[in-house]
Amino acid sequence: QVQLVESGGGTVQTGESLRLSCAISGLKITNVSMAWFHQAPGKEREVLATLSRSGSVAAYQDSVKDRFTISRDDAKNTLYLQMNSLKPDDTGAYYCCIDPGTGVIWGQGTQVTVSS
Fold this sequence. Notes:
Elements: E1 3-7, E2 10-13, E3 18-25, E4 33-39, E5 46-51, E6 58-60, E7 68-73, E8 78-83, E9 92-99, E10 105-106, E11 110-115
Parallel strand pairs: 2-11
Antiparallel strand pairs: 1-3, 3-8, 4-5, 4-9, 5-6, 7-8, 9-10, 9-11
């Protein structure tokens, strides 16, 4: 059974940083496309960053392009999201997901709160 477990969320002040982790079990993440999504309070879930199956191509939503970095560690079977210069609009739940070709699998989410 494939499971994704996010961690690293918390409460920070504007301008601070956090690194989210998504530990994957039951599947090797090499050759798997991966992504991070954000769901702000009262809004729909939206994609923030994606990472190609090879791990070499990343894409970002414009609002986070120069502040967030998606990466993975194949040895640790873990996906990361480095978030810098956090803003109050970044508050919400963050979800990782993978698509091994048999359907998208989601983590349970981790909460980030950015105070002004």
